């Protein structure tokens, strides 16, 4: 493909598995973020506070913002983002948690290896 045929848009897929070591600390941080958001309407604020207090995964999703991940990357502008979090059973030794062949091949191609 020449430069005219190449899209300027890139889809970046990231999957993280995090270990929550202090649920209370995580929930409090999410509550502080909610309290500091002046644009959040009262009804949505109440709903968000309940969600992050009851579900650690919701608290984490509230704190991790894709814009924060790329806001200082030069030459890019975030066009669209979606993300979610969920509790999972994680066993790092399980084959289930290894990269899929497709993931490895995609990564090799994107790195210029494949």
Q: How much of the sequence is in beta strands?
A: under 5%
Report the sheet with the most strands, covering strand number, pairing sense and barrel closure.
Answer: none
Tell how many strands the DSSP assignment holds.
0
N-to-C order of helices and strands: HHHHH
> Could you give the distance between the termini?
16 Å
Parts with pLDDT < 50 across at least 5 consecutive residues: 105-114
Shape descriptor: flat
Structural class: mainly alpha
- For the CA atoms, what is the radius of gyration? 18 Å
Tally of contiguous helical segments:
5
Give the % helix.
40-55%
Mean model confidence by pLDDT: 84
Q: List the quaternary state of the chains.
A: single chain
Account of the protein in words:
The protein has 114 residues and is mainly alpha-helical. The chain has a domain at 15-73. Helices cover 43% and strands 0% of the residues. It contains five helices and no strands. The chain has helices at 23-35, 42-54, 56-63, 66-70, 101-110. Helix 2 crosses helix 3. The chain starts with 22 loop residues before the first helix and ends with a helix.
Summary tags:
43% helix, disordered C terminus, 114 residues, 5 helices, single chain, mainly alpha
Quick summary of this structure?
This protein has 114 residues and is an all-alpha fold.
Secondary structure: elements and pairs:
Elements: H1 23-35, H2 42-54, H3 56-63, H4 66-70, H5 101-110
